[in-house]
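Q: My labmate handed me this sequence with no annotations at all. I'd like to see what the chain might look like in three dimensions before we decide whether it's worth expressing. Could you predict it?
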Amino acid sequence: MSLFAFGPSPGPRWQLGLQAALGLAVPIAVMTLLGAPVLGFIAASGAFTVLFAGFSPVVERAKVLPFVGAGLIVSAALGVLVADDAWLVSIGVVVVAVVSAGLAFGFRLGPPGPLFFVLVFGLSAHVIATAPIAPFVYVAAFTTGVVFSYLVTLTPLLLPRVRAKRARPLRELLPGPALDADARMLLLRVAIVAVLGVMLGSIVDPGRSYWVVGAAIAVIGVAAARRAAFQRGLHRMLGTVVGAGAYALLALIHPSGLWLALLLGALQFTIELVVIRNYALALIFITPLVLLLTGAATGEIGSMDVALERIVDTLVGAALGAASGVLHPRATKQI
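A: Here is what I predict for the chain of 335 residues:
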């Protein structure tokens, strides 16, 4: 897809965008009012649950998302468990990346694939290592966020016409485990970029390797195609650079409290509207959202040093993910 072209949308995205925005903003707003905003930022990360199975009917999402949520909670708990040892965090990044990719591809989970399991693991380890919060409290707050986001996705079931729709059996929604040729190639690419990403990250800072690996996995996506890898890599590089500039502008106003909750919710809603139509444009909103959310949780909000680090990590990871696309055979032209 061209950097300046908009792809077609398979269906309306406003409902998914609203659910993701509420899953992110409500915990922040509520915990801010209760005097514990950091717990709100942690719980808000549970909104990643909403992003899976986005095009499935609600009755089917109700069956699939508990498995996604459980996987995210396990990833967070593992990150918390090894947070005090940078080398264990690096090893964990590889393990979580490979295992989550194997499960996501083997059971045909679909987009966004293994990405958020790796990010949740890395973010959890980073927050525990840098912020004064007890590990159990962190996991409890994150789990609460996952449960809340899941309940938000179920709200359409209040309508009889939504409940009346028949859901397919779980074995059809998550068929597997089985890895076809494309899935095996995607899994191989994830394993390669995870190992290389951790090795490169260890040169600068082992604690940042999860970001390099996450950027690479985001480029790999769930499409087994060489051209798609190069396009997503270019989109991620340019979108992140522009998005970091947007973060710098937003950081100047030092958003906090309810205003920050509203801002993050608006960013998340916008992301869900555009992410499947133009990946580069979506990253202009994704980058400041992630930087603001993690910065608020660790007390680093507004730090340009952190923004620069994330740009470098993303460029390295995106280059890795795009380069791994050469493992796919060239597409043959149809005569």
